[in-house]
Prior knowledge:
Blueprint: H1 4-12, E1 17-23, E2 28-32, H2 34-39, H3 64-73, E3 77-86, E4 93-105, E5 111-120, H4 122-142, H5 147-161, E6 167-173, E7 179-184, H6 190-196, E8 199-200, H7 206-214, E9 218-220, H8 233-238, E10 243-250, E11 256-264, H9 272-349, E12 370-373, E13 379-382, H10 384-400, H11 407-411
Antiparallel strand pairs: 1-2, 1-5, 3-4, 4-5, 6-7, 6-11, 7-8, 9-10, 10-11, 12-13
Helix pairs in contact: 1-9, 4-5, 4-9, 5-9
Amino acid sequence: xxxxxxxxxxxxxxxxxxxxxxxxxxxxxxxxxxxxxxxxxxxxxxxxxxxxxxxxxxxxxxxxxxxxxxxxxxxxxxxxxxxxxxxxxxxxxxxxxxxxxxxxxxxxxxxxxxxxxxxxxxxxxxxxxxxxxxxxxxxxxxxxxxxxxxxxxxxxxxxxxxxxxxxxxxxxxxxxxxxxxxxxxxxxxxxxxxxxxxxxxxxxxxxxxxxxxxxxxxxxxxxxxxxxxxxxxxxxxxxxxxxxxxxxxxxxxxxxxxxxxxxxxxxxxxxxxxxxxxxxxxxxxxxxxxxxxxxxxxxxxxxxxxxxxxxxxxxxxxxxxxxxxxxxxxxxxxxxxxxxxxxxxxxxxxxxxxxxxxxxxxxxxxxxxxxxxxxxxxxxxxxxxxxxxxxxxxxxxxxxxxxxxxxxxxxxx
Length: 413
């Protein structure tokens, strides 16, 4: 397991120190380290040559002016973060140095030359940039910024820090780890991102699908010839991609969270700085994704709890309605029972006639054998035939319309 210090060394390289001893107002090189000649852009032996003649563009740089001032003033001078561009074209590289200019004096104290001592600060600047970008990402994660925003910022940060052009992609694993979904890829073509969104994890499914399946980095240095890209070679060609290095993003328990890929436009073998950059940010990506999953789980649990509370409230309201209805029915039943008891008492006190009272206007001389009553307190005695007729007719009338008056209406028919 590599240390963080080792990763930073691989990422930013070793610091360079330069030294040169110059003579006279023309700043003739008397002695210098090879690193000095490499920095000023002329690696040939330049001993005995005026500094201005060692590189065609040196006069335009910020090196000669301070030399002239120190030679005139005989005072030391220090400049911080002096910018020096090394190489040309695709090989151009920006570097920075802290440079000290010390006057050289003879026995009489006169300035005879200048000592140049420079220490490269490029690594410090890049490390500061890395820490600032990394801190910003951690702050985004802490304030629960959307996962897509965090991953997009991380991808752009890596693309800016990489020493050579790189296109970064982050894919997110489904819950079952069988498919990979688009997470972030700000520099890849949209049609490419759409085409690989939802690819399966498995052996031979490009760099990312294979890395997710193996749970280990997969380095494809030439997409045009590697069999892992047989099914995606045409797509990669249309996207202008020549190499792809993919690393699985794993949770603390070893489960798959996604993949982190670095694409290049030409076939390339990864340098130590590329691998170090991947290691530095892999943990940050895992932290962001795990935090996102935790937040989703929390929101889901809160939604389920809220739904359960709402269902409980509905059940309580339904129970209250049923209880109120039951109380109303109990009150009505009590009132009806009281009414029936009162009617029964009234009926009990009425005298028992000798003849049937249910014969209507024509009367009936048959013996009164049965007493017929209704809930309104009306009652009458009748013979068997008329009692049966009254029961049938009064019950029917009572059911059809209570306003007919029950037995009273029947008696007055």
